Amino acid sequence: MGIVKKTGLLFLAAAGGSGYFWLNRTGELNRTLGAIRRDVTAIQERDPAAANLIETLTCYSGLHAILLHRMAHFMYEQRLPVVPRVVSQFNRFVTGIEIHPAAKIGEGFFIDHGSGVVIGETTEVGDNVTLYQGVTLGGTGKETGKRHPTLMDNVTVGAGAKVLGSVTVGENAKIGAGSIVIHDVPPDSTVVGNPGRPVRERGRKVGAADVDWTHLPDPVADAMQSLVRRLVELENEFKSTFPEKREEIEKAQEEGERELDRVFDYYRGSGI
Ligand SMILES: CC(C)(COP(=O)(O)OP(=O)(O)OC[C@H]1O[C@@H](n2cnc3c(N)ncnc32)[C@H](O)[C@@H]1OP(=O)(O)O)[C@@H](O)C(=O)NCCC(=O)NCCS
């Protein structure tokens, strides 16, 4: 066995041992084991290729990465100096996934295909979040303090997508592969492109014409109504100017109204 592999295994055993010691000491063991159990079942639920438990435990670098991160994060929370960063770098060395020990990650976290993922220090991730290979949850380089994204529950981030800055990605949102997101993402939406723009919000396509097909405008009927209104006004004026013609005009108006009723019944839909 090569010296690098031997050192790696020794380091893993030492880190695991100290992690176990600290977890046991503070009574955190059950909580952490619960989170790890959810991480394992998340893979089995979300990846049809995960045939059985042994395969899941051995063949998913995303799982190895989150296990090592949970250990590093716990040590970070206990204010252990240096070691959490070293575990994080070891994690990067063996899985190709770099997660800062301070990053807060919820249960049921799944990084599919692993490699090339970077998760920054002030990132916060909710429950049941899925990332694909090449995702960066990073800073823009311009901010201080909280400078990495917050991903709410059930978010999916496609392969190679970059979410940059202290933005919030709402619950159930999807970020398309290769997108660059620098603004907040609404819940239940799909965002694609560079810069990321919503193409779907609450299940509906964004930008599609919102046409009410049952009440389409009818400019011809509107013009006809306006003409009829003007004609009735003229007839009424005619009646008051020439009282001797009143009877004749009223008879014509009655006939006209019957005609109009037929026309407007058609206009309102009964003729269709
Ligand atoms: C974004 C995604 C989740 C699809 O979401 P959706 O809500 O079903 O969206 P649709 O497929 O209806 O696409 C909506 C529009 O976005 C476009 N679009 C979809 N994915 C896109 C992407 N990654 N980049 C740019 N545009 C994209 C579509 O062409 C469509 O455009 P149109 O309305 O002009 O036709 C999916 O395309 C995606 O990128 N998934 C990530 C999968 C991944 O990373 N897999 C890695 C496996 S190894």
% residues in beta strands: 15-25%
Q: How many β-strand runs?
A: 16
Q: If you average the pLDDT, what whole number results?
A: 87
CATH architecture of the largest domain: 3 Solenoid
Q: The CATH topology of the largest domain is what?
A: UDP N-Acetylglucosamine Acyltransferase, domain 1
> How large is the radius of gyration?
34 Å
Short note summarizing the structure:
This protein is of the alpha/beta class and 272 residues long. The protein is 46% helix and 15% strand.
Characterize the structure shown.
β14 and β15 form a beta hairpin. The protein has helices at 3-26, 29-46, 53-59, 61-77, 83-95, 219-241, 246-267; strands spanning 98-99, 104-105, 110-112, 118-119, 124-125, 130-132, 136-138, 150-151, 156-157, 162-164, 168-169, 174-175, 180-181, 189-192, 197-201, 204-205. It has 272 residues and is an alpha/beta fold. The radius of gyration is 34 Å and the shape is rod-shaped. It contains seven helices and 16 strands. The strands form three sheets. It has a seven-stranded mixed beta sheet with strand order 3-6-9-12-14-15-16. Strands 1-4-7-10-13 form a five-stranded parallel beta sheet. A four-stranded parallel beta sheet has the order 2-5-8-11, with no helix packed on it. The protein has two domains: 3-215, 3 Solenoid (UDP N-Acetylglucosamine Acyltransferase, domain 1), CATH 2.160.10; 219-267. α1 (3-26) packs across α4, α1 packs across α5 and α6 (219-241) packs antiparallel against α7 (246-267). The protein starts with a helix and ends in a 5-residue tail after the last helix. The chain binds coenzyme A (COA).
